[in-house]
Amino acid sequence: MSESGPLVGIVMGSKSDWEVMKNATAMLDELGISHEAKALSAHRNPEQVHEWASSAEERGIQVIIAAAGMAAALPGVVAAITSLPVLGCPMETRVMGGMDSLLSMAQMPGGIPVGTLAVGKAGAKNAALLAAAIIALSDDEIRTRLKAFRQAQNETVAELD
User: Which domain holds residue 78?
Assistant: First the structure.
């Protein structure tokens, strides 16, 4: 883990998103990647979101994972504030099962990219793996750990006769 501070910033629109997003932190922990996690709402805490996102790069954050449901504005707001890569994790919702969240993130206007993952736990895990792959481009130790994880994962797939 980084001794200088977190490399990945995780922000979620509500504390209720933690049940899903703890899968991202678990994956980052497994890969030995330092991270921080906050619950901040783009609608209820706009000043805190701006402060957190605008200071992320100077705090050493290299990739941001942003989770939100329903209108799913948080990833787009964060991406509008920082030039760091922002990976969006759509949360499952009661109304549309998370399709509303997914489409809100995927339909960002040109110029404000949000890399959008799957709805729910798989998306949270994959966001952590994608963040690791981005950081691994310039960090040999993380690249080695990511490759080892992928190799171990490949070895667990059953072969068919």
Answer: 8-155
